[in-house]
Specification:
Blueprint (H helix, E strand, L loop, with lengths): L1 E6 L4 E10 L2 E11 L6 H19 L3 E5 L7 H20 L3 E5 L1 H9 L6 H12 L8 H22 L6
Parallel strand pairs: 1-4, 4-5
Antiparallel strand pairs: 1-2, 2-3
Helix pairs in contact: 1-2, 3-5, 4-5
């Protein structure tokens, strides 16, 4: 099963495609979609959608998971983040990809066992769980891989208990 994890943002959106075979997880592709400096919000949303569409066509994931917003620095940034998430979620739906959403605490708990883990702990566990080299990854990429890992761990359980709808 291929799972696409997404850490949404209006300037940068992290992504990570993880392959799950039983209890084994392997990173297939990861990185981030970045918008050009000076781009307007509509241009950024279009760019995020187009790039995600290309990623879906290339990787053909069975499922996707998106990190749900916890809070914003301010109301304006939270609204812009919600707009970026909307563009990404609409692209996933248009692509026919079954999508789950997880809070940051759910993701941290699934990856580290601690819903209040620091980014460094999450990054270390993502590297260990996916056997990634120690080369630096952006926080967006690490978070996206963590979201995919969370989905992989919870997917079968959610299906057994009647499914969790995004």
């Amino acid at each position: 099963m291929l799972i696409l994890g997404i850490d949404p943002g209006s300037w940068h959106a992290g992504f990570g495609v993880v392959e799950q075979h039983g209890s084994t997880l392997r990173a297939i592709e990861h990185g981030r979609i970045s918008c050009r400096r000076g781009a307007t919000l509509p241009e950024r949303l279009a760019h995020l959608s187009l790039e995600l569409g290309a990623l879906l066509a290339r990787t053909k994931p069975d499922a996707a998971a998106v990190e749900a917003p916890f809070h914003g620095r301010n109301t304006r940034s939270l609204i812009v983040l919600a707009e970026a998430r909307g563009a990404l979620l609409a692209t996933l739906a248009t692509g026919g990809v079954s999508t789950r959403e997880y809070s940051p605490a759910e993701v941290k708990s699934a990856v580290t066992g601690n819903g209040r883990a620091e980014k460094t702990q999450v990054s270390r566990m993502v590297r260990l769980l996916l056997a990634l080299p120690s080369a630096a990854l952006s926080n967006d990429t690490t978070d996206a891989l963590a979201v995919a890992i969370c989905c992989a761990q919870r997917w079968k359980f959610e299906l057994r208990v009647g499914g969790r709808q995004a």
